[in-house]
């Protein structure tokens, strides 16, 4: 009889706790989606104050979708591009109930631009991302950081310092070593060009005549359309062109260098390959067959990450989320929902 009473008591107790937890969760969800009628709604845009070098600037963010459990903070490439080339994400992630956040880094797009190369350095950008994460209330229970190209460098560096503050990491189309990236550009990609085009490009680069219109005339068909986005340039999606047209050249040249083959800026010697073993959060590396980044090297990165997985886009290039969309987004969504 005593056993029966104890069992009954425990059943009632745990049922009551379960109901309370359920109500609590429901209340949290309702509060999350509720619109505050006391303030003007602005489409999820938030200007975030960030303090750097004892100066306060504001960076632009915009939330797309609502999901308290899955939030993806996007780090754009370049360096110096804008969030806009990510706009194709709107066609895939919201339908799966996945929230993501656009974010223009300092000096990019809608964010403040100090017009000072003093601010164009990797450690400062890492601290900027951390300030943005805090301001948006992103936590280790819901926040994934997706860094594409230069954003992948920033994401890796951020994770090495602040991985305990996020749930997962996505490194999209970026190798963990700039020297190896430069080597791949010189020894593989350059040799795939027509010899006459490569000869002329090298002549222009040797003369440091990067403003020469002929430089882009050669690069677009021989490099950009082969390895950046595998479509005729006249057919490139409007968000890509809009973003590239707004490139902060000062930021790009300071960190990347003026050449499209490898890196000659202050990221030239950046290499975190041997440190990948220290990133313990769940991670996804995305590589593509025709990318400017070596897909085999990116597979190797997956093997070095303790909790890494690899997504390979066989039809994709550097912007694989455009030229191999189905593979890219299926793999990304599966990863986020695991």
Automatic annotation (TrEMBL):
Q: Which InterPro entries match?
A: AB_hydrolase_1, AB_hydrolase_fold, AB_hydrolase_sf, Peptidase_S33, Pro_imino_pep
> AB hydrolase-1 domain: which residues?
72-324
Q: Which GO terms describe its molecular function?
A: hydrolase activity
The alphabetized UniProt keywords are: Hydrolase
Which superkingdom does the taxonomy of this entry point to? Bacteria
Return the PANTHER family for the record.
Answer: AB HYDROLASE SUPERFAMILY PROTEIN YCLE, MONOACYLGLYCEROL LIPASE
The family annotation for this protein states: Belongs to the peptidase S33 family.
Q: What is this protein called?
A: Proline iminopeptidase-family hydrolase
Its source organism is: Flavobacterium jejuense
Q: What is the lineage of its organism?
A: Bacteria, Pseudomonadati, Bacteroidota, Flavobacteriia, Flavobacteriales
